[in-house]
Amino acid sequence: MTEKQYARLVQELAPKSPMWKDCLKAFVIGGAICALGQGIMNFYLWLGLDKENAGTAMSMTLVALSALLTGLSLYDNIAKHAGAGTLVPITGFANSIAAPAVEFQTEGFILGVGAKMFTIAGPVIVYGTLSSVIYGLIYYFFGGAV
Amino acid sequence: MRKILKFSGVKVAVGAAIAGTKEGEGPLSEDFDRIEHDAYFGQKSWELAEGELQSQTASLALQKASLKRDDIDIVISGDLEDQCFASSKGAMQSASSMLGIYGACSTMAESLLIGSMAISGCFADRVMSLTSSHFCAAEKQFRFPLEYGAQRPQTAQWTVTASGAIILEHSAEENGIFITRGMIGKPIEMGITDANNMGAVMAPAAQNTICEFLKSAGESPDNYDLILTGDLGKEGSRLMKELAIEEGFDLNGVHNDCGLMIYDIERQDVHSGGSGCGCSASIVASHILKKMREGNLKKILYIATGALMSATSALQTQPITGIAHLVEFEVK
After folding, report:
1. Do the beta carbons of residue B34 and residue B271 sit within 8 Å?
2. How many CB atoms are located within 10 Å of the residue A87 CB?
3. CA–CA separation, B316 vs B319, rounded Å?
4. What angle do CA B120, B163, B223 make, to 5 degrees?
5. Contacts (Cβ under 8 Å, ≥6 apart) of B70
6. How many other C-beta atoms are found inside a 10 Å radius of the C-beta of residue B312?
7. CA B49/CA B39 separation, integer angstroms
8. Quick one: average pLDDT of A125-132?
9. In 10 A of CB A25, how many CB atoms?
10. Contact across the interface for A79 and B151, Cβ inside 8 Å
């Protein structure tokens, strides 16, 4: 059997993920997190914060909640079902930093927690910053035309 | 064509196996010597925990055989951790002389082959084959931190937390469980780069060793009570049997896979089944030896399969090489 034929056989026999069920769960759970975020934001607005500060406070609250749930070993149980629903919102980012922070304590606070904390989130930070630089340059040169 | 290794006087003295909580909730829990519910095994890290798991299993095997650490001429051990740390740590307690080996999940069979060669070749009277795997240590090294919210694909397998130890001894007697023949694996790579589909990586290697052995030995699958693979899992087992049929060997009536035996696939959410060095090691050292002693299995082939990759090679999207070592057990 050639490599190509084998690859085809592997593909044939590989079980398909339940696409519709996964999408629906991601939608419902991801939507629920966003709705929760909106609820928290409304709460901060009600407390008297202006719109921008309420938005920031809401992000901080969601991040804190995700980190707490990660530490309590509950976040991954939700993520197992939610998939992109927990990954895409800011909760995914928080979990991706909190999880290695918990794991690498055994290697010490500097080379363990400190260094390894960003193994998963690192690319997001790097390419997010890079994208904003590129956007900034485009905005600078083409100004209001963009 | 690879040589068939013919061994003489290599008797299985005893086997011992310790497993974790999830394995203790599986179908074979009664056959393990002990289930340990503390995933840390009383240690400070996963790496130390796996070392402790191995050393406890080795001690248990010595106890069951009424032997002391110095009675074993060579301990042949390995595991999945970087630089086989668990085996080195475990060996501090359990070995007077140690050969560290790496065969990924094929380690137990590799160890049994080297041990059989040592005894058959009169280089040792008593050898211990020992290996382990630990879910948390493996996830930390190869995949993601435990609390990270990632979804596992359907073809992924669950690394087993377990250790198996088998003591082999030289015996001139003609009754007992013996290792009679073996075949060393050939590295086989079929272009699979997906580290989440280990079954597809290892199936061609398993088929290659099994078919070459059967052909060279002039045996047919029906001559065996069981042809047992290490951890091909659901997809890997199906792939291996498809490939074997192409070579003229139908293994359907006689094949089973330790990765499919160690967990209840329907109930325990392990996707494609169990994997890891400890998967087949713990099952062979407990459940299989028990069935052979009771007379339910008289002649079997044990083929442990390994995926020879590293965390780094996976990031380089290198195609993964598989290997499969074969050990023949017979009750005399």
Report:
1. no
2. 18
3. 9
4. 50
5. B96
6. 8
7. 7
8. 96
9. 17
10. yes
Q: What integer pLDDT is reported at residue B187 of this predicted model?
A: 97
Tell me if B311 sits within 8 A of B142, measured CB to CB: yes
The burial class, CB within 10 Å (0-12 / 13-18 / 19+), for A111 is exposed
Q: For residue B79, which phi and psi values (nearest 5 degrees)?
A: -160, -175
ipTM above threshold 0.85 = yes
Backbone angles phi, psi at B130, to 5 degrees: -145, 135
Calculate Rg over the CA atoms of chain B: 18
> Over 70: is that where the pLDDT of A16 sits?
yes
Contact B87, B74 (CB under 8 A): no
Mean pLDDT, 10 residues at a time, chain B of 332 residues: 94 98 97 97 97 97 96 97 94 90 97 98 97 97 93 92 98 94 97 94 97 97 98 96 96 97 94 95 98 97 97 92 98 96
Q: What's the whole-model pTM score? A: 0.95
B46 touches chain A (CB under 8 A): yes
Tokens of B93: 């307690």
* Of B192, B203, B85, nearest in space to B140 by CA: B85
Which sign does the torsion angle of CA B171, B287, B50, B195 carry? positive
Nearest to B217 by CA among B252, B175, B180, B174: B180
> Sign of dihedral through CA atoms B171, B176, B178, B180?
positive
Q: What angle do CA B156, B85, B30 make, to 5 degrees?
A: 55
Residue B106 CA: distances (Å) to CA of A108, B99, B110, B183: 33, 16, 6, 12
What's the gap in Å between the CA of B124 and the closest CA on chain A? 39
**Do A76 and B154 count as a contact with CB atoms less than 8 A apart?**
no
| Helix, strand, coil percent content, chain A, rounded in steps of 5 | 85, 0, 15
Which residues of A are less than 8 Å from B148 in CB distance?
Answer: 76, 95-96, 99-100, 120
